[in-house]
Amino acid sequence: MKLAPLLSSAALVTAVALIPATTASMAQVDARAGPEFAKLYATYNRIKASYVEPVEDEKLIRGAIDGMLSSLDPHSAFVDGSDLQRLETMIDGNYSGLGLSVVMDDGAVKIISPFRGSPAAEAGLKAGDYITHLDGDLIYGGDLDDAVSRMRGQAGTSINLTVFRPGREEPFDVAVTRGVIELEPVTHTVEAGNIGVITVNEFSRDVGADVFAAWTEIKKEASGRVSGLVLDLRSNPGGSLDEAVALSDLFLDKGRIVSQRGRARGETLLYDAETMFRGDIATGVPLIVLIDAGSASASEIVAGALKDHRRALIMGERSFGKGSVQSLLPLGRDAALKLTTARYYTPSGHSVQEGGIKPDITVPQLSDPDLAKRNKYLMRESDLRGHLVNELGLEDEALESDKIDDPRFKLTAEELKEQGVEDFQLFYAMETLRRTTPSSVALRD
């Protein structure tokens, strides 16, 4: 696996920029760091000479690198070999495995979201679940990459996961059969009342073009003029910055989409409308964007841009809050640093780091029978150890304000099921479009 093919690709789930290793950000070693390097070298020598068993140099050096990066933030990492290959397959959206987006949370593997239609989703795994064992082996306190590698494998083979779900007293086992995860990044339907629904599962290659094609098909399939459109970005962990810009540009005809600002001049970039697509493809059509706590990174770029330009009504739950940019910095031919190099900002100058995108209308997923219990354990960027702090110093109370009970949302999951409503957030978005006039749903002045 060489680095060159990856560098020609777009950035990926947690990485939304690629910059060469020769940028101005490559600082010279400060002479004052000499004593600190001396400590590092002395520690290396002590281990080599005195540890109870012989230790390979590769193990010690890799441990030192991993330790440096883990002291920075949750998204910076050293990647080589199979790790680089995984990053490339995430861009392609094609690999064999379970179809999960996971993070390490205080030593535990925690699910951010299962991809729609994946083996994990079909097996009933949910955002917020903790995976404690793989085929009976405890993975708590282990390495995230090792856990991910074990969950991937040949399609048709199975793996047994032991899962702890907040709100349940006992862990439970789930057998999941691996599949070829050829996620359809974009799917669409036409619902009653000529309401179009476009679901974006991830921001892999060509998502902007795929959404354009979906809109074209919706217009053909509708019985008349399309009366409203729902863009569903829930549980979308992100992906390519270019595709986030392209998708936003489909519905904007002017103005800033997103900006990223780093320490070095070359790491401050501006992205504007009308650079990838001309005009608004759905002029005059009311647009609602659905987000939730699993909507991260590129999803937040799109939601923030359409919200700030008043092109869409944002509905659902506050997003994950990942407002940092990771860049792949080559280290030779077969390794790279995935390093946080910048923050990104919405058109109004808002950083989503920690705070996320707040919906215009907060709509809980009432059709989830575990909603009340799982809400206590929802994880966002602000819950990750070592996360970057928002420069605005947001107060915890402000970040939690979206948990206040709304008297409009009192139906239980059982009552909704009796009414045939399996996805309350989507149902509420479509009902909003059906009962309102175009001029009253978040259209620009």
How are the SSEs ordered, and which strands pair?
Elements: H1 3-7, H2 34-50, H3 57-70, E1 77-80, H4 82-92, E2 94-97, E3 100-105, E4 108-114, H5 119-122, E5 130-134, E6 137-138, H6 144-151, E7 158-164, E8 172-177, E9 179-182, E10 186-191, E11 195-200, H7 207-221, E12 228-232, H8 241-250, E13 256-262, E14 269-272, E15 287-291, H9 298-308, E16 313-316, E17 324-330, E18 335-345, E19 361-362, H10 371-375, H11 396-399, H12 413-418, H13 424-435
Parallel strand pairs: 11-12, 12-15, 15-16, 16-19
Antiparallel strand pairs: 1-18, 2-9, 3-4, 4-5, 5-6, 5-7, 7-8, 10-11, 13-14, 13-18, 17-18
Helix pairs in contact: 7-8, 8-9
**Biggest pleated-sheet summary:** 6 strands, antiparallel
Quickly count the helices.
Answer: 13
Head-to-tail CA distance between termini:
51 Å
The overall average pLDDT, rounded, is 80
What name goes with the CATH superfamily of the largest domain?
2-enoyl-CoA Hydratase, Chain A, domain 1
Query: CATH class of the largest domain, please?
Result: Alpha Beta
Strand % is 15-25%
Number of domains as seen in the coordinates? 2
Determine the fraction of residues in helical runs and give it as a percent range: 25-40%
What would the CATH topology of the largest domain be?
A: 2-enoyl-CoA Hydratase, Chain A, domain 1
Structural class: alpha+beta
* Radius of gyration from the alpha-carbon trace, in angstroms: 23 Å
